[in-house]
Amino acid sequence: MLQTIDYLEDILRQQHQAEEESSPGFYASELQEMLGYTEEAMHNALVRAMQACAALKMPLSLNFRRIYCWQSGEMLEDWQLSRLAGYLLIVNSDPRNPAIAQAQWFLFRKSYSF
């Protein structure tokens, strides 16, 4: 009985950690504005990021959440992105855009200290 409770506590701890790590870190519209992306380019980068997430067998629903917001009298679609989704979006974006290349370099430097 005690072993079962310990096992359940481990499962709950892992689930809590996964939910915490996938908590919304970015909005796609914010990244689109910061990176100077068009809607079409952002859509393509989102699709590639989702494909990468799926290939990693990570749950899309925890990393990409479609939301709708009301702005200037119209309803707009946006995406809440986890930190992982934001990372995947940036690394799967077009590096010919100087802002994207800079963001990719920043992520590299943050991951690997020289």
Write out key terms for the chains shown:
single chain; alpha+beta; three-stranded antiparallel sheet; 6 helices; 114 residues
Summarize the structure in words.
The protein contains 6 helices and 3 strands. The protein has 114 residues and is of the alpha+beta class. Strands 1-3-2 form a 3-stranded antiparallel beta sheet. It is globular and about 50 Å long. The mean pLDDT is 83.
Nearest-integer average pLDDT: 83
Tell me the overall shape. globular
**SS class:** alpha+beta
Gyration radius from CA atoms, angstroms: 17 Å
Approximately what portion of the residues adopt beta-strand conformation? 15-25%
N-C termini distance: 49 Å
Order of helices and strands: HEHHHEEHH
Number of beta-strand segments: 3
Q: What's the helical proportion of residues?
A: 55-70%
Give the biggest sheet.
Answer: 3 strands, antiparallel
* Low-confidence segments: none
Number of helices: 6
Side-by-side strand order of the widest sheet: 1-3-2
Blueprint of the fold:
Elements: H1 2-21, E1 24-27, H2 28-35, H3 39-55, H4 60-63, E2 64-71, E3 74-82, H5 83-91, H6 98-111
Antiparallel strand pairs: 1-3, 2-3
